[in-house]
Amino acid sequence: MTREPSEHGSNGSSGRIAAAAALLLVTGSALLGVQAGGPLALPEEKHLRNVRQLTASGENAEAYFSPDGRRIIFQSHESAGSCDQIYVMDLRGGQRRMVSTGRGRTTCGFFFPDGKRILYSSTHHVDPNCPPRPDFSRGYVWSLHPAYDIFLARPDGSELRQLTNAPGYDAEATISRDGRIVFTSTRDGDLDI
Questions:
Q1: Which is nearest to 38 in space by CA: 51, 27, 26?
Q2: Number of helices and strands (H, E) in the chain?
Q3: Which among 23, 60, 105, 149 could bridge 83 via Cys, Cβ 3.0 to 4.6 Å?
């Protein structure tokens, strides 16, 4: 859960940090002409400071902070034929580690509030290969592939456990501060939360 920035009190910094998360992971080192670890090359930016690029290759998306703010969890793939997998990156050293299985396609990694568990959605249990990509001829679309289910693991990927097992798409999960999970599903025949 992201708090909105505030001009007063301690919630302002967490809101600004969350807002910056969307800019931290960018695709390719050529974007905006910046080098990995270098400053953001947009002098007209007046709201964000000290933004730095954390990745320099592949396609990286949906990055979320751990509760202590020291790690991020995100999905990534390196080449056009590869599937998204879930990674955890230490923000101090920059080391990233794949925490999903390396099979199927994954999406929507998230830390639990205690930082001791993660969840993400995956298709690996149905087929180790990538599901077919949707038709992007009319723009970006997200495929509601029925093989997606939600999985729980430790932040290093160990102790993997399947949480959903209903027919249809179960993905896009997020966690409230008290540990409740909300997700998108087609189990009732249409797209519901």
A1: 51
A2: 1, 10
A3: 105
Q: Is the dihedral of CA 175, 176, 181, 182 positive or negative?
A: negative
Phi, psi dihedral angles at 22 (to 5 degrees): -65, -25
Q: CB-based contacts of 138: which residues, under 8 Å, 6+ apart?
A: none
How big, in percent rounded to 5, are the helix, strand and coil portions of the chain? 10, 30, 65
Q: Which amino acid is at 40?
A: L
* DSSP 8-state secondary structure symbol assigned to residue 134: P
Q: CA-to-CA distance for 179 and 71, rounded, in angstroms?
A: 19
Which residues partner with 61 through β-bridges? 75
Residues in the chain: 193
- Enter the tokens of residue 39: 């400053």
Per DSSP bridges, beta strands 149-153 and 118-122 are antiparallel
Its pTM stands at: 0.76
Q: Which helix (H) or strand (E) covers residue 62, if one does?
A: strand 59-65
Strand pairing category for 71-77 and 149-153: unpaired
